[in-house]
Amino acid sequence: MFKNKILNWIFIVFMFVLVSYRLVELHCFPDSRVIAQSKRQYWLQVPFSASRGNIVDRNSIILALSIPTYSCFADPSLWNDEDTIKLKKYLSSEGEKKLKNKKNKFLWLFRKLDENKAEEIKAQNISGLHWCIENARLYPNNFLLNQVIGFCDNEGFGLSGIEFIMNDILYIPSGLRFYGKSFSGNNLEFSKIKNKSELNSVKLSLDSKMQYYVENILEQEAISNNAKWGAVVCIEVKTGAIRSMASWPYYNLNNRYEITNTKFFINNAIGRTYEPGSTLKPIICGIALDKGIIKKDTSFFCPQKMKIADGYISDHSANGILDLKGVIVKSSNVGMAQIGKSIKPSEMYNSLCEWGFGKALSLELNGVEEGLIASPELWRGVIPANIAIGQGLAVTPLQLVTAISAIANEGVLLQPYLVYEAMDTSGRVVYRGEKRILRNVLSRQNALWISNAMREVVTSGTGKSANSQLVEVAGKTGTAEVAGHGSYLEGKWVSSFVGFWPWKSPMYAMIVIIGEPSKGKYYGAEVAAPVFRRIVEETWEFTYGKDKIL
After folding, report:
1. What's the number of CA atoms in the CB half-sphere (13 Å) around residue 42?
2. DSSP-derived pairing of the beta strands 201-204 and 419-423
């Protein structure tokens, strides 16, 4: 009896050892056929781009949205090299090279294809391709507002413009999908992440219809004058809301190649600095009037050329005796130089800073430049006179039109803004752009007086080509040389016109700049002023019709 029990236990131990040995053999030293089959059943973690919120204009017209597209990937370690031949006309040489590297486990072959292209590739019946649906960013208007809207990378992360600045609101982090294969080799997707049915959104203060007219006109005139660059900014006088912002040349937001071209990176409206020339003169006169340094009836002797300290300031012709309004209307450099040298450098510097120059304006865009004003201790010799005629300092188009809008707004300087509101998925407003007063830079009385002088610039002065029979315009021309390498570049000019309308009750202020025209014409009066008039009239007509004349 005892002997039988011992035999039974010996048998049980033997079987246990035998099973254990077999388990170790199977797990640690598997059959080559098992290894081959296991490679066909694997888990793969794939990141994919999810939806972004919509960007819309002030009238809720969609400017940017996400749409479903088709992407596919492969595992080079399991790739059949014979299938490369079937994909040869679709793959780049770099893609072919990566497929040959059997150490890789994951390789994107095609990203964000439309349905037709995806079906064409699927028709090749290649088992090594794994397909998934991703969201891609689409800009329905291609070129419209390109520098303002900006763009995203392939994973849906904002890199420029509103897409970048409002990324925390628009961006939904990339999700993960897990893929495997069945024993028979069929693809299996083990998890699906559904996008939200409601997305965050950003509404801009811009009017896309007005923007369409602005961009078309700016491009036509820039090309006809063989210009290097151009910019237009239109702002609401009473609120600071930006209605239009254009920077030429344009690029197609849906073209990835153009997006990577560095020549399109600068938004000229906010990121390019230039000498403002005579468009600064109304502001300088406002500063001098408010400080009591000159009066409205002060007279100036304006010969064609006048020595100021260690330099000379000249006009196109002798103007004789001019009062202050005459200096503005005729855009006399000699008269302005006399005003400039009568203001202490420190007072002029501080006043220009109060008007918003020399520092970056807060705006919902990246790349906003500060401009350049030398510290007042460097204002020696003729420099104060040069500043008064808009030379020796650099501004951005946005800075200048914001300052001029303060004249139209009875001396009140407002903070410009571009985003009207941003909402979360529940419709709750998480950000709102609104009217914000920065400071009073000019008395109401002096602002109205300068406004009247700027109206005369258009009716009888240098800005007559900006005059409109449809709506009364007030403004100022500007023609400035281009600085470079320590001196002014020969034959390089910046033509500009800045103004507002309707003159008696201003609604909009706008600046038009044609940078470095090279077809013979370069004065602001003959290049930029007519563009200003065209934009004003065409936008006024589509808003109010031809019958409403102010």
Report:
1. 16
2. antiparallel
Helical H segments across 238-367, by residue range: 256-259, 268-271, 281-290, 324-329, 333-341, 345-354
> Of 43-57, 247-261, 388-402, which range is least confident?
43-57
Q: Is 59 exposed, middle or buried (0-12, 13-18, 19+ CB in 10 A)?
A: exposed
Q: And the tokens for 480? A: 């400035």
Q: What is the CA radius of gyration of the chain?
A: 34
- SS3 of 146, please? helix
What pLDDT score was predicted for residue 193?
46
| Vertex 90: Cα angle to 84 and 92 (nearest 5) | 80
Q: Is the pTM of this model over 0.90?
A: no
pLDDT per residue as tens digits for the range 411-432: 999 999 999 999 988 888 999 9
CB neighbours of 253 closer than 8 A, spacing ≥ 6? 64, 139, 142, 143, 146, 149, 151, 259
The residues near 214 (Cβ < 8 Å, ≥ 6 apart) are: 232, 234, 244, 246, 535, 539
Report CA-CA distances (Å) from 428 to 60, 233, 423, 425, 484. Answer: 16, 30, 5, 7, 50
Name which of 85-89, 242-246, 334-338, 477-481 the model is least confident about: 85-89
Nearest to 228 by CA among 519, 19, 548: 519
Residue 478 CB neighbour total at 10 angstroms: 30
Phi and psi (nearest 5°) for 95? -65, -40
| Per-residue pLDDT, 183 | 44
Min mean pLDDT across 81-95, 421-435, 453-467 is at: 81-95
Q: Which residues contact 534 (CB under 8 A, 6 or more apart)?
A: 217, 221
Q: Say whether pLDDT at 113 is over 50.
A: yes
Q: Which two tokens stand for residue 7?
A: 């035999």
